[in-house]
Amino acid sequence: MADVNRGNRPLSPHLTVYKPQWTSMTSILTRITGNALLVAALLIVWWLLAASTSAEYFAVANAVLTSWFGDLVLFLSLWALWYHTLAGIRHLYWDTGRGLDIETAEKLGKVVVGGSVVLTILTALILR
After folding, report:
1. Residue 99 has pLDDT above 70, yes or no
2. What pLDDT is recorded for position 61?
3. How many CA atoms lie within 13 A of 68 on its CB side?
4. Which of 44, 57, 81, 102 sits between 20 and 30 A of 50, alpha carbons compared?
5. How many whole angstroms from its chain centre is CA 92?
6. How far is CA 7 from CA 3, 14, 16, in A?
7. Domain map of the chain by residue range?
8. Stretch 112-121: mean pLDDT, rounded?
């Protein structure tokens, strides 16, 4: 049977009305970094396959990965790896039933973002 009250229901909050929250933004960012890590993994696999193919093909792949663009992609991949790892640890903590109140969840989101930036910079400095 058709819903006769269809036009009387309120509309869902629109993006211009909805205030982003730390928990929703970090959840979206976790999905984005997961997909970005797949792209970075494909670049590394391409580099390894080029190394096993020929010296000329490896020179092309190596030139791409060692260019400013390759350095940027690998640095951002390093950040995505740390972010994704810390977000996973946060989810494991939540799986124990702790930290689910709004205040703690927002603090954990800020810790994940800040911690990933700090760990990325430390790792980059150590690897240089």
Report:
1. yes
2. 95
3. 0
4. 81
5. 17
6. 9, 17, 22
7. 21-127
8. 97
Q: What is the pLDDT of residues 28-77, one digit of tens each?
A: 999 999 999 999 999 999 999 999 999 999 999 999 999 999 999 999 99
Tokens for 107, please give them: 């603090």
> Can you give the pLDDT at residue 128?
85
Tokens of residue 117, six digits: 């930036």
**Which whole-number Å values give the CA distances from 33 to 53, 86, 116, in the listed order?**
30, 12, 12
For the whole model, what pTM was predicted? 0.81
User: How big is the chain, counted in residues?
Assistant: 128
Segment 117-123 mean pLDDT: 97
Is 80 exposed, middle or buried (CB count within 10 Å of its CB: 0-12, 13-18, 19+)? buried
CA–CA separation, 81 and 66 (whole Å)? 19
Token pair 């020929």 is found at: 54
Q: How many CA atoms lie within 13 A of 95 on its CB side?
A: 6
Token code pair at residue 100: 């689910």
Q: Residue 46's closest CA among 34, 32, 64? A: 64
